Amino acid sequence: MQLKNRHEQKTIMHMKALVIALTTISITTIATAQTQTQSQNNENISGGYESFSEWYQNDFKTGSSFTPSDARFLSNHYFKADYTLGRFAAGAQYEAYLPAPLLGYFPGLKGNALATYYGSFKVDQLEATAGYFYDQFGSGLVFRSWEDRQLGTNNAIKGVRVKLQPTSFLAVTALSGYQRVGFETSKGQINGLNSELDLGNLFDFADLGIRFGGSYVGRYIPPSGSEPSTVNAYSGRFNLDYGGLSLGAEYVAKGKDLRPDFSGSGINYYDPGSALLGTIGYAKQGFGLTAQYRRLENMGFYSDTDPNIVNNPFNSQVINYLPALTKQHDYNVTNLYRYSSHGNMVFNQGVFGENGGQVDVFFNLPKGSSLGGRFGTKVALNYAVWYGLGAKIDTASNKYTINKEFGTKYFQDANIEIKKKWSQNWSSIFSYINIFYNATVPGLSAAQQGATGLINANIFAVESTHRWNTRASTRLLLEHLSTADDLKSWASATLEQGFSSHYSMYVTDLYNYGNPDPTQRIHYYTIGASYMQGPTRIALTYGRQRGGLICSGGVCRYVPPNTGLNITISTTF
Amino acid sequence: MKTLAKQYWLVALLLICTAFSSKAQTPFPNVTIQDIDGKSIQVKDIFHKNEITIVSLWATWCTPCQNELDELNDRDLKSKGIRLIAVSEDDARTVGRVKSLANGKSWNFDVFLDPNNDLKRALNVGPLPFLAVVKDNSILYTKSSYTPGSEDELIKTVEKLK
């Protein structure tokens, strides 16, 4: 009860502070707008608002049901305001989850709070920040703090950061703090040091770019039992570019950290981890090629030692960033079998790290050529393949040795996309995707929420857009996934009508017509409308969502099946 | 329940404040982004004096973003005295594809990288695509979303702002 009172008092204090802050911001904004020409633009206030709200309905088809005591209406609101005055900047983000966050979000986000705030001071060579901040070292393999509201991810660090750039060729960042977890902060303290050396600038090379980077990230938790109180991770990397050629590599070594065991033994194990990332690319006008290779072993890195946070569905307390290196498709059926990365070794889930890569090729068939036609044709090819590491396990000691670099095949995606412009007002995109997904591995099957067996699927999609005049347009998208495996074949159609640059409507349906169980041949339909005016967008949709992974930037969260009315608003000022 | 009602009222009040907070000109935030090769650069150093510039925030996974940039690329903005800059919001998952894609599409404008979304956050941008029209470091106009045909309306707006 005392806790509840304390929480309520805290909430009321936050609300009072916010009312005062917002009133001040509004008055200052109006005043700033009126006096901006006199103040020589050294003072400014900017901000934004974003919200996702849904009214959920019972739907016996998908099995989503609510009891009378459940809240049917859930909403997430984010207000952010930044104030700058010369070299000084400050800002805050207020978040409200009313009465609770949307389905699939971190349940600890109930209520409202001034979730993040910061103050910073910047001179030419130095920037100091106190409060909550975001940062990334290298490619993020060793450290990344970031926000993605669609995913409900916010790994901001609450602490102090100093950035120093003494010369044009050297930049150093030092930081220390605790990671944001819901409206609280992590138990583990994170300390980091990053340096970037630009030899191209140092030696004034005209065409050659050479950059080196080095990072240290440490997580400290007060000692408890046999677990290591400090886990250190180090990253070394380089990037080289000359003309159209580019080459880069990063290696991360992580000290002994938790290797989870979900077999019910209750015993945790501690092993070192490593990551290797290599990239090579070549590009010239009309052609581009990129190839990436990555190997991960015990690279889950968290700000707590609780085994339950390993692979947690909310991406909570994750210190580093291990995205799936595959093409991020954005059609309905292309998202049925998504791959997510596997950085941990979890024996009883059949997951043994990850080893693989992808190749991308883009080229343009020029206008006027026989294949390019009058308006040109753009082609994109992508191939990705991912394996687990082959490991020999000593069950008595629960130790392992890697005996094969490429063990069980997890996933493969080969795809081609051709964009053809037929006339000034008519264009089409043709896509073909061949997917292999290994849902016999329990860890992968769980990530896919119930997929079973070895899945081989072929996907065709064709999209055509016609502009009727400078304001109105129609877009039709037809998709088909054919497979003899898992839930068998799917089809989808989308029709979108733009009435002007301000209004558009769409209707879409995804149908699992091949499902062997006739009761599961469900139409996942949505009808939606949106209004856009300058930086403001308001979208209203009604429909049935298939439960599954919502992914952004290669990280995914699980959302249960749901049906209802959805309102999304975003604006900036 | 009383507290919850207060929270709804507070959200409504904040929304009203936000709706009435728009103003004519805002300085473009000066954060550090990267050129297409990954070399750090201050945003203020990418603009040219007195030149009107369209800044597009896009990503390789955003089809409407690419459709809009393809159309703007075909409009020969240079001859109209308009500069176009595309800042990729791809993070480590897809940022490696940006240079290849931009070259493969024969885009004839400058492309920059914002791999940890520092610029996107500083501009308080929600969903992509997002456009800002900038002159002398001041934002003159912003636009969210893309519908086919809106690029011609955008060009007319920019020409009026020149």
Question: Any idea what the shape of chain B is?
Answer: globular
Poorly predicted runs of 5 or more residues of chain B? none
Query: Radius of gyration of chain B, rounded?
Result: 17 Å
> Percentage of helical residues of chain B?
25-40%
By CATH, the architecture of chain B is named 3-Layer(aba) Sandwich
Amino- and carboxy-terminal Cα gap of chain A: 41 Å
What is the radius of gyration of chain A? 26 Å
Which shape of chain A, going by the Cα principal axes? globular
Unreliable runs of chain A, pLDDT <50, ≥5 residues? Answer: 1-7, 26-40
The secondary-structure class of chain A comes to: mainly beta
CATH fold title of chain B: Glutaredoxin
CATH class placement of chain B: Alpha Beta
Looking across the biggest beta sheet of chain B, what order are the strands in?
A: 1-8-7-4-5-6-2-3
How many helices of chain B does DSSP assign?
5
β-sheet strand percentage of chain A: over 45%
Please count the helical segments of chain A.
Answer: 3
Short description:
The complex is a heterodimer of chains A (573) and B (162). Chain A is mainly beta and 573 residues long.
Structure description:
- The complex is a heterodimer of chains A (573) and B (162).
- Chain A has three helices and 34 strands.
- Chain A is mainly β.
- In chain A, strand 8 and strand 9 (153-154) form a beta hairpin.
- The relative contact order of chain A is 0.10.
- Chain B has 162 residues and is α+β, with helices and mostly antiparallel strands.
- Chain B has one domain: Glutaredoxin (3-Layer(aba) Sandwich).
- Chain B has helices at 2-19, 63-73, 98-104, 118-122, 150-161, and strands at residues 26-27, 32-35, 40-42, 52-58, 82-88, 110-113, 130-135, 138-144.
- In chain B, strands 1-8-7-4-5-6-2-3 form an eight-stranded mixed β-sheet.
- In chain B, a hairpin with a 4-residue loop joins strand 2 and strand 3.
- Chain B is globular, with a radius of gyration of 17 Å.
- The mean pLDDT of chain B is 89.
- Chains A and B meet through helix 1, strand 1, strand 2, strand 3 and strand 16 of A and helix 1, strand 1, helix 2, helix 3 and helix 4 of B.
